[in-house]
């Protein structure tokens, strides 16, 4: 039966749910197919994005997140412009091709201008040779446009779950945490010209396998360019921790995450899919296994060591005690261990985005 589903061009909800439940031989067929699609459509090379977690100050209060505003146990930091520019230059010098600048969610003219200034600085110091992804939450359309004009190329904004109902159980019920606004932000990002990425958490309390299947079909329906998704990991200083007894064991969340990646690769052959850090929290080889399952983007952490331990969205986050140089060496070994190659000095734009925006070139 799985064989038939894997041949379909347009699998439906029951098909995708069946793939998420695949075991034994069927499971093997799923991963084999994903590997085949990956080799054919994006190749066995992995693009790097140096990850700079530049501030953990956040105005939001998401029930799952360790850096939510109400968590007074986490010391807050905001890297200096110099530290951020140095980290970006480190990525450039080490031939990473691109960076991701991520932060808690802040809004307002000061933040907009600051990020704009940083984008200018990065472009100058790298002569425009470093692609920049921003992951700074929901902003106004004008802010997105300004950042795009200042040289940001891509934007990551996870929907967290495509189920409106589940979303409302994971967030306070107010204007700041509106599902509709998050959806609108994804549309605004697209209009501003970005390569747009989204994603979900896998194994949340109250989440069903069918919810996850719907997440994948939703990503396809909005024709997304990039995806980063990974297991939900409980954090004891957050409200969602109350429901920890409802969670699947961590290994099962990991397994579901691998299947989500493999199925997404089959559904959306030419998009960029990241091997999330959260995967490595559960399995020491988690990110390599994600690459083997269909991911083609790896995000070495290049945040300065002095603050790394404070960007804890979840507990047991790996690599918080390593410096950027250690990460660089370790990345290559990890990627080689699953017979993939590191794509140095490559921007690694989403093939899907290129086809979507420049069909005439192809
Ligand atoms: N402020 C930005 C970046 C958020 S942090 C924004 O709003 O988009 C990046 C991602 O970490 C979140 O989108 C969420 O999917 C993930 N995350 C947060 N808490 C988590 C947890 N407890 N377990 C797993 N992933 C988590």
Describe this structure in words.
By secondary structure, the protein is an alpha/beta fold. It has one domain: TIM Barrel (Alpha-Beta Barrel), CATH 3.20.20. Helix content is 44%, strand content 12%. The chain contains 15 helices and eleven strands. Strands 1, 2, 3, 4, 5, 6, 7, 8, 9, 10 and 11 form an eleven-stranded parallel beta sheet that branches. Strand 8 (226-231), helix 10 (250-267) and strand 9 form a beta-alpha-beta unit. Helix 6 packs parallel to helix 8 (179-192). It is globular and about 55 Å long. The chain starts with a helix and ends in a 5-residue tail after the last helix. Bound molecules: S-adenosyl-L-homocysteine. Residues 64-65, 102, 104-105, 135-137, 157-158, 160, 201, 232-233, 235, 278, 313-314 line the site of S-adenosyl-L-homocysteine.
Please outline the helices and strands.
Elements: H1 2-7, H2 13-20, H3 24-41, E1 45-48, E2 50-55, H4 81-93, E3 98-103, H5 109-125, E4 131-135, H6 141-149, E5 154-156, H7 164-170, H8 179-192, E6 195-198, E7 201-202, H9 209-221, E8 226-231, H10 250-267, E9 272-275, H11 277-282, H12 286-293, E10 297-298, H13 305-308, H14 324-336, E11 341-343, H15 351-357
Parallel strand pairs: 1-10, 1-11, 2-3, 3-4, 4-5, 5-6, 6-8, 7-8, 8-9, 9-10
The structure holds S-adenosyl-L-homocysteine.
S-adenosyl-L-homocysteine binds at residues 64-65, 102, 104-105, 135-137, 157-158, 160, 201, 232-233, 235, 278, 313-314.
Number of helices: 15
Task: Give a short account of the largest sheet.
Answer: 11 strands, parallel
The portion of residues assigned to helices is: 40-55%
CATH architecture: Alpha-Beta Barrel
- What is the H level of CATH, i.e. the homologous superfamily? Aldolase class I
Give the C-level CATH assignment: Alpha Beta
| Average pLDDT number | 96
Mass-distribution shape: globular
Please give the radius of gyration in angstroms.
19 Å
Structural class: alpha/beta
Bound molecules: S-adenosyl-L-homocysteine
Please count the beta strands (DSSP E, at least 2 residues each).
11
Total number of domains: 1
Order of helices and strands: HHHEEHEHEHEHHEEHEHEHHEHHEH
